[in-house]
Specification:
283 residues, Polar amino acid transport system substrate-binding protein, 2 domains, alpha/beta, D-Maltodextrin-Binding Protein, domain 2, 12 helices, signal
């Protein structure tokens, strides 16, 4: 018995202690301990560290929803964006609060809560836009053009679906690295969500970088792409998803959702529609 308990402790020690033999769900354990472990990737404006604290659109929504459930202690775990889903599945954290897009491929691995926002993509280039880039198609048409993107981010698939080759994509661990590469001229552009791009450029003070104001949103399978972001849980944690969705619906109805995300650069047009995560995953 001692060996079994020790093994359980070692396996789960890097995240939440989960003694599955008790039959207690992750939600009930979080309520009992009044704490929840969140995974984030230091990406403005969704979830990032500032002055030693973790904040951002996704984090602040989560804090309010969990607080209403009596879960007041938020324990953040910083990781690369590409490691978020593996970390969730491995039990390093209870929920991903990183503004992650809902996609069919990710829906096979995690259980998304309902949408928190609905936004478009953004592109920044060297000042003056010397390569005249206004879309991912423009990148594809110039084989010597290189764009930096966070590893695991949805923009990789958007670019590839638009004809951009693998060797035109420079993968980076985080946004500041991407902007630093562009500012020094080692890549021709960086792409990420619109709010994220504006937020990182405001803080980066990159003098040689400018936003492509007339960037054309990617069109995949005949449809203009809009990013729909949400929190993500393990598929077995259905009760966690339910209380999160209930709390999110209350925030949306009362106007608190807009009040929470607006300070991070989101506008009313970025608010989610009535489509659920389940409906989006079936598309």
């Amino acid at each position: 018995m001692f060996i079994l308990v020790l093994l359980i402790f070692l396996v789960t020690g890097c995240g939440r202690l989960q003694f599955f033999s008790s039959g207690e769900s992750a939600l009930q354990e979080a309520k009992d301990q009044k704490s929840v472990v969140i995974g984030f990737a230091n990406e403005k404006p969704y979830a990032y560290q500032e002055d030693g604290k973790v904040t951002g659109e996704a984090v602040e929504i989560a804090k309010k929803i969990f607080k209403n459930q009596g879960i007041t202690n938020i324990k953040p775990v910083l990781t690369d964006f590409g490691s978020l889903i593996p970390g969730l599945k491995a039990g390093r954290f209870d929920v991903i609060t990183a503004g992650m897009y809902i996609t069919p491929e990710r829906c096979k691995q995690v259980a998304f809560a309902n949408p928190e926002y609905n936004i478009g993509e953004g592109l920044a280039v060297q000042k003056g836009n010397p390569k005249d880039i206004h879309s991912y198609k423009d990148v594809a048409n110039q084989p010597d053009t290189t764009i930096a993107v966070m590893k695991g981010a949805i923009e990789e698939s958007y670019m590839k679906d638009s004809g951009v080759k693998e060797n035109q994509i420079k993968f980076v661990a985080d946004q500041p690295t991407a902007v630093a590469l562009l500012n020094s001229g080692r890549v021709d552009g960086v792409t990420m969500t619109g709010p994220s791009l504006l937020a990182i450029l405001q803080s980066a003070k990159a003098k040689n970088v400018s936003v492509v104001e007339d960037f054309k949103q990617p069109i995949i399978d005949g449809k203009e792409i809009k990013g729909i972001g949400a929190a993500a849980f393990r598929p077995e944690d259905k009760d966690f998803v339910k209380i999160y969705n209930d709390g999110l619906a209350q925030m949306k109805e009362s106007g608190e959702l807009y009040d929470t995300i607006h300070p991070f650069g989101f506008t009313k047009k970025d608010l989610p529609g009535d489509e659920t995560a389940e409906e989006i995953c079936k598309q």
